[in-house]
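[job 0412] stage=complex_fold ligand=adenosine-5'-diphosphate status=START
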Amino acid sequence: MARLGRLLVLDRRHLRHLRRPVHLLTVPTPHDILAHVFGYNAFRGEQQAIVEHVTAGGDALVLMPTGGGKSLCYQIPALARDGFGVVISPLIALMQDQVGALREVGLRAHAINSAQNGGARRAAEQAMRSGDIDLLYIAPERLFAEGFLELLEECRISLFAIDEAHCVSQWGHDFRPEYLRLSVLAQRFRGVPRIAVTATADRATRRDILERLDLDAARVFVASFDRPNIQYRIGPKIAERRQLKDFLAEQERGATGIVYCLSRSRTETTAEWLREQGFDAMPYHAGLDPDVRSRALERFVRDDGVIVVATIAFGLGINRPDVRFVAHLDLPKSLEAYYQETGRAGRDGEPSVVWMVYGAEDIAKIRGFIESSEASDEQKRVERRKLDALLGFCETADCRRQVLLRYFGEERLEPCGNCDRCLSPVESFDGTTDAQKLLSAIYRTGQRFGAGHVVDVLRGKDSDKIRRFGHDKLSVFGVGAERDDIQWRSVIRQLSAMGLVATDFEAYGALTLGPEVREVLRGERRVLLTREPSRKERRRVAAPGRAARKAEVAEADQPLFEALRQWRRGLAAARGVPPYVICHDATLREIASRRPRSLAELADIPGIGDMKLAQYGEALTQVVREDG
Ligand code: ADP
Ligand code: ZN
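[job 0412] stage=complex_fold status=DONE, emitting structure tokens
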């Protein structure tokens, strides 16, 4: 409370401009803190219940997706209670950003981790001793460094927050042995509430967290894992570069994003090609020179309009909250991986798009990886199942979000309205005849030819190759003339997803028949397909585009938005912090559209708390006035 008093008193000069009443002498409620410190006027979803429970001294386990707003769940109770909050976090870059952002809102935040110098650690410890601190972020191994717990025992602690709590579980990929020791907090700090938070939701992990952190009395809060601000789009791979370019061209000016590829060399060639096309693209993979890699990372964090073309090595520790798009040029390994990789978009809750193209070869490639790996049969079975779930998602005619959430155990009744299937529905039809034609063509040509040739045969094309092999004499020649090449490739892809068609890479990508084709050829098994628009239709109907995305900057507000970004960039550079630590895009976008000219008007913008109003109010309203 004294803290908040200090903060508000510090800014008293500006307080008379505020429309919101300020109660200097009363204990701030969580809502006061939300409004005055963070500048937001309402809690989101479960936040309020969590904040109230922890502020009252209860333990909690919070499962919430990325971007759900986990940090406020412990930051606000830490401020509302007496003493300072201790946040245990294994991700150093994230920790630094959080501390930076908290200082921006006027809080006394410190970090203790292995990346800092002794001076910063001593300053933190000094602040702990004098009580001149609101939040302490600490890496787990530092918490257990000699003498540190003893120091903590002499302090007044408002709560312990255990971030990335799934690190305590051996099931996941992020297991950290030091996390197992965190149960000691329950014994040594009786009466101090503990809140564990994570974006990993499966049951085994949840059980592990509760058990191993001694949180049996904790209330468990499970939020939906839906990421409503993310638009899902998946299409057939026809000409990947042109498609990628079209997709990128559709994005808002200055949008930053990630393009994922499977191989290192593909990230390099794709990035180079994008640069030739005028995009600010950089490759990123584990094999790059460390200097090159850290420069790419730095630019990605700092600059607008940057595209990183990366293998999945790029991801961990990426905290940029305003990644606006994630594109996949290759299939991810599983739906879990897809959710994780696409989840890096829109952590700030703003509209974002994720986009993927894939074809039959991609399916075949992944099947090949699985079959040729050294894994046990059991492991292979698991991987095949995961691939099937992924392909089911890719090929569905239903709302993608419904399918995705169902995979994670959440039933969603209504279609989402923000995926390609909702925005431009596809028809399903009985494609048994098409399947029979295709399978016969593969069979009659001896399972020795790739997709291009098989499609030519089906369409009855007159080519040298066809005449040379006498394929114009086959009964299947020309039986599929009513569909164009894109549509036949779609049938090939869908049958590949079902395992009815395979690709033999040893034989130059020849299409071969899967084990269960006989039933289809005999008409004993029906095949349901989704209808692919032909080339002609494709030109007529526009892509789903940005239909369901709302938070764009209007054309007329673009110059102001740019000017505000420019202002933020300058300030961030001067401070040596990433721009998003100063404030988020959403805040600048609101300013650009509402054009506040006074501090009182500015105070109503989400994300502008008392401290930002005091520090930047003049500068921001100045930028607005200059725009006229
Ligand atoms: P997580 O840690 O769950 O990934 P964060 O705590 O970083 O998510 O929050 C994600 C974004 O949502 C941040 O930009 C944060 O400022 C914003 N946010 C969180 N809670 C609210 C709220 N109640 N009102 C407005 N914005 C919020
Ligand atoms: Zn949908």
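The chain has four domains: 43-222, 230-423, 428-532, 546-627.
[job 0412] exit 0
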